[in-house]
Protein: Alternative oxidase
Amino acid sequence: MLVTSKYRLATLATKSNVYSVVGSAHNRIRVHAFSTSFWRRTITATPHSDPTKSEAPPPATKQGEQLERFQSLAEANTTNVNRDNDLAKPDRHDLSPAAWAHPGFNFIDMNNVAVAHHEPKNFADKIARNALLTVRWCFDKATGYKHPPPGHEDDPKYIVTDKQWLQRIVFLESIAGVPGMVGGMVRHLQSLRLLRRDRAWIETLLEEAYNERMHLLTFMQLTNPGIFMRGMLLIAQGVFFNSFFIAYLVNPRICHRFVGYLEEEAVVTYTRCINDIEKGLIPSWDNAPVPDIAKKYWKMADNATIKDLLYYVRADECKHREVNHTLGNLKQNVDRNPYAFVVDCGREQPAKDLKSNISHPVGWDRDEIAA
Ligand SMILES: [Fe+2]
Ligand SMILES: [Fe+2]
Structure:
């Protein structure tokens, strides 16, 4: 008995030599070549055939080799699959490199970072400033923060504990990570929609959002907000994201000015926090180590402390202050982003390092930037 079941499938094909593949129940494959205008595929089952007398050659065809290769690759993949759901293990996250590597700052420049303020110059600036003051009032109420007037920094009623600092910082960073993402997203969609280039703003805006989220993730290693705080973050993000999104569609220039003012406040907050540590008002942070995620992102030394970390974060904030005030001075759909490419024109230009911030803490005017 040679054939117990047999069927044929025919379809149009080339008039040159083609192949008919005959396979048996014992996984032997024979390839016959013959001339025909039809491609024929026949599968024949031979349950009682004698293997020693079989005419079928070993599976040495190219298809057979490739099948064996796929099989071995699949087996290799199977052995690498970790059955413990390792994707969810927190320590695995730290293995991935930063999407936007931090540019790196030196200690002298970080030490020279100072509080600065952009005086509103026109009606749009005043809108941005008043909007920021309104947001800040809500923010201070939500975190129970009272900023001391000059000369009252050491007054006990203005003392902020480490827990209150972390509460304020986490709230601040969770909001601060929104504008860059909204601005980058809107400009990305605009580029797709209008079929034109973006002048390199998107990357800087997304990098800022990433940097703010790294701030948040770092401080989240030091605290664990309760359900009330998480509820507040949910509401605040919902309101702020949608408001900022609509505002960015209407007038992105005012939005960048607003972010510039927001970052001014961030520099004020971190400067006061550093001063409090140096005065010994936050004893738990005197020699507290820095979370690993921060050491890796800012390339900090192993013995770095929270105070060192705050210098880095404050330097980032002052850079956001400069960048957003500069972007607020530019023509949004015409001008290139001066931070994406530094033109060598014989005079100082905006750059990613802190040097351009020391000379221009609240941004660069349009006519200072090389074309
Ligand atoms: Fe931040
Ligand atoms: Fe910032």
About this structure: The chain is about 50% helix and 10% strand. The beta strands are 6-12, 17-23, 29-35, 38-44.
